[in-house]
Every structure is written in structure tokens, then in C-alpha cells.
Design goal:
single chain, mainly alpha, 0% strand, elongated
Length: 110
């Protein structure tokens, strides 16, 4: 099949559009690979700075106490100490009896 001069004119006028399309496809692939590379690098850095959970330590002497239970025990001991301190203060204060009607009536007789 022979190519006519009219066909060549049509092909040459479309060559720049084809070139732009192919260039954008190549850049798109390169850009996609660059984005994936950055994401992988971020994951690697996050894994480096992250603290991993300890493997199964078993029920031996190496088991660490729970911090939450320690703080609860401390708070409970403090609360008991405060209550006992309040009880001691109440025992040391002298008890004062007051008349409920004192200061409510005014005597205006002469």
C-alpha cells in the first residue's frame, strides 16, 4: 500500500500531538514511581523511629509491672492517708454546741 502525499501531510500535522501524548505518559510513569519512592521512604523512616512491642516474655522474673495499677495503688494509699489525717484533725478540734435559735430573734423590749 502506497502512501499518498495527502496522507503524509495529515501524519506530519499530527506528529507533535502524538509526541506530547507520549511524553506526558512517560512523565506520568516517572512521577508515579517518584511518589511511590517517597511513600516507601517515609514508611521506612517511621519503622526506624518506632518502638516495637516485645516478643512473648513469658511469666518469669523479667515481667514488668503495670504502670496503671501502680498509679491506682498510689492514689488509693494517698486517699486513705488523707482520710486518716482528716479524722485526726476532727478529733483534735473542740466540739462546740450552738443554739439553733441564737441570732434569729431580736428583743426590742425596754
Amino acid at each position: 500500500m502506497a502512501i499518498a502525499p495527502i496522507d503524509l501531510q495529515t501524519v506530519f500535522s499530527q506528529v507533535d500531538k502524538v509526541a506530547k501524548t507520549q511524553l506526558s505518559q512517560r512523565e506520568g510513569h516517572a512521577m508515579h514511581q517518584a511518589i511511590q519512592g517517597v511513600q516507601i521512604q517515609k514508611k521506612i523512616e517511621a519503622n526506624i523511629h518506632q518502638v516495637n512491642e516485645a516478643q512473648n516474655t513469658g511469666e518469669g522474673a523479667e515481667k514488668v509491672k503495670d504502670r496503671a495499677s501502680d498509679t491506682q495503688n498510689k492514689e488509693e494509699k494517698k486517699r486513705q492517708r488523707d482520710e486518716s489525717h482528716k479524722d485526726e484533725e476532727n478529733e483534735n478540734k473542740p466540739s462546740v454546741l450552738r443554739d439553733m435559735n441564737l441570732g434569729r430573734n431580736i428583743d426590742i423590749s425596754l
